[in-house]
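Why run this: before we spend reagent on co-expression, it is cheaper to look at a predicted model of the complex and decide which construct boundaries make sense. The entries below are exactly what would go into the expression plan.
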Amino acid sequence: MRPRTLLRIARWESTKGLGGIDRGAVAVAVAAVAFVLAVGAVAVTGGVALEDGIYRVGVSEDAAYHDPVAADPTFAAVDTDGRNVDTGPPTPAGDGGVAIGGFRGDGRIDLYVEERAGRTEIYVAFFDGEPTEKGLAALAALRTSVGRYNDALMRAEDNRTAAFPVTVSIRFLDRSGTVAAETPGDGGGGRSGSAVDGGNGGADAAGGIGDGATGTGESGGMGGDTAVDAASFGAFDLFGTSSTTGSPSDIRPPFPFQSLVLAFLFVLPLNFLIQAYGSSMLSERLNRRGELLLVAPVGRGEIVVGKTLPYLAAALGITAAIVGGLWLLGSGGGPLSVLAVVPLALLFFGTTFLAAMFARSFKELTFLTVTISTLLTTYAFVPAIFAETSQVAFVSPLTLVIMDLTHAEVSAGEIAFSLGPATLVAVICFSLGFGIYREEDLFTQRPVHLKTLDALASRIHRPRSVALVVALLVPFVFVAELLAVAVLFALPVTFSIPLIFGTIAVIEELAKGIPIYAGYVHARYGRTLAVAAAVGSASGIGFFLAEKMTLAIQFVGLPGLAVADAAFQTGLGAGDPAIVALLVLAPLALHVVTATLTAIGASRGRRLFGIGLGAAILVHLAYNVAVVSTVV
Amino acid sequence: MSKTTIAGREVRSLSREKTIVLALLIQVVIAGFSSFLVVGLTSLYEPGAAADDIVVGVTGEEAEALSAAAGDVEGLEVRRYDDRDAARAAFDANRVQATAHAERVGERTTVDVEAPQASVRKTFIVVQVRAVLEALERSERADRAAFRSTDPLSIPPSVDASPYFGFSYTVLVPLLVFLPVFIAGAVVVDSLTEEVERGTLTLLRVTPASLLDVVDGKAGVMAALTPIQVALWLVLLSINDIAVANVAPILAITTALGALAVAVAAGLAIAVPVRQRAQLSYSLGMLAAFTAAALLPEHPATTVARFAIDSPTLVTYAHLAGYVAASVAAVVALRRWIRGVDAEALG
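The model came back. Tokens follow.
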């Protein structure tokens, strides 16, 4: 691969549409500016309130709850004066002064509040003798709302200690007793990192607590003032670094909201970039446009990498800008954050490249890119939510970003564990797509399954190269099996266990069998029995090694995680060498035998491939059942 | 060749490429993902989700008051310890999940809480402790009523309400309404730019069909598919015990917004017949519009949520009327503009 050629192709790709200011570029620019302006305007005016007016509350002007209901946009206050609400008898509830009852729901209001005999009576809408779900939900919302209203009321009090008589500080400790992170209870503009080791933020926070503990009435008063300030912009506490103040209602449970916001910030631009990237790659395939590059004296690798580079550079540039912006806002992001986004971006581009190679039309590509966006966003998003609670979070590279931004320490092992699998899958996708980046596949409308065979066969040159292709498919096998488990998990055990066994047998045998078949279709090796046995063994051994290697990676990457231990309990701790050997060799023998069955079938043509594969699946299933019934 | 022929071909190509199946699959994944997210996160907070009670070790001179306040909170017990070291030892041995040291400082009660850093139940523990502290704050406030000019209101009792109720209507239903709308426009952009880029529009032009017929046929199909998809989702939701009210207005709003999105998409695709540019402008523009809609008195998502949860007001209906009017205007304007476009110039 020659850097000069690579850069030239990259320059062509990035300047393709910039020959003059055409209408398309203007449209994109206008839309982008409109988006930025809209986000800005909405951020200034206070965001989107989805819950506005979803509960209708009938409350009279003189009722104590009139003000909190009017102040909370979740409620739509309905004027009930002069209307007859058919209420039942109320019973006292809550902490004094409140009674609760029901009224016959008429579809106009969900809650009815009335001031009667010196107490507040709340009525929930009933339908068919049962309180409606909506009425109960409205009552729960009213409870939160009144609490908030009370705090606002108390903030206006002159006597701070009577308004906020309790101050709290929360510290998060490891069980060994070392301070993990602190939230200052009072005063002090100290920034407490939610960092694992506290860092210098922790030292500030300790000072804050000192103030609180020795504080007199006066310093308490300051604390109250801080509460007012904090409430005004506390809704957007991105890193949990601003101090929570003393009052109990100011305690924010460690809800990983910042992770969600961050995940969106980093993943959103990627979604747009893959759209442009996919379009560009697919449009090469229209009207044989890409042929000019293919016949030019450049390698296919240079074309693909060169065309991908500008988009990757754009992704990294945007990420660096976001990290820089957050850094200015006071976060601790640095090169690690940008580095962590690299495999994620590669994964987005790799899958999109593969999709663009397979798609038959723009429409199909749109659906494929939306699917990719959805699935990869889920992959980046869900584990990162648990960044602060569980090691499993490191499955997603975004967790590294969050750790980095919040000043947390990450070990080299965690970085490798987080970046490794994503990079590997991205490389596999690129190499599969690269296999069909050739004249025969680019410009013809070949059916998808033939293209898949082409993509696989491009890596097969002799019987033993099947092992490598099968090994490359193992990550996808794991994903498919996880999906199957997730889907079948909800069924009763009597159905789900056999179904999962069956599905796993089918998935694994397909992963071993299809590359074998692809090799035969493309006549990469002879059709003798000996060759079939060699191909089958290569496939079985490749699968076995890759499977065990992934387990080893998990074991190294997640020491101390119970799930990993459970997954790795293959009997290595049994002690007796005979048992260890048996437990290791039995799966290897199984994979070799079943793959050879498939290979023998595949060497005799398409129909016998199906029969061989079916036999292999049955053998695999029988083995699984036999093992489980002897072990359990 | 008439509009209906073009529309029929469009539907056939969608079904042949199985793209509609993929679209439904995407929507199921997104809906399932967001539900999973909310159910999973809510279980971090909900007392019912926890297997056993949280035990808090309390110490200090105000421990009595703290214990009394804890009596009202379900799923939490307190255990008294003589000093902080004993409580810390119990915490380290996992006999208590959190410790609280309460003492009187000046005119205030100060509580130092220690919660475990590495625990899946961390959030739940903090939520429970907060409930105790809020109860303590209420009783302490009541004791100091004489020193204040105002009194806080009594708090309504806590009830056994479904924590997912609001989410189903304010997030899930709008999501399922707006996804098909967005996708419809994206498909129209693809379908039109592809004809231009592949050069097949010229072939269509030798038939008696005008450019307007082509756009009508292609855009009309997607606009018609939108409410059908949404209707399907509403049926599925009602099977899952999420009763959606005001189905007719919701379908009306879907149709109107779908037509609006499709008209904008068709206009973009004709004005910028390059897929990469048109698609980028479309998706950025839609996001911009969806965000900017927050400046309206009622966001479209809120309008849908209010209809679905059966709390529509006059304002809600006014918005619906506005969307219908806007979509009619957009469709009329688009058709008038396309009639004047020279299809030769598109290439």
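Chain A has 22 helices and nine strands. Residues 180-245, 559-574 of chain A have pLDDT under 50 and may be disordered. Bring this page to Monday's planning discussion.
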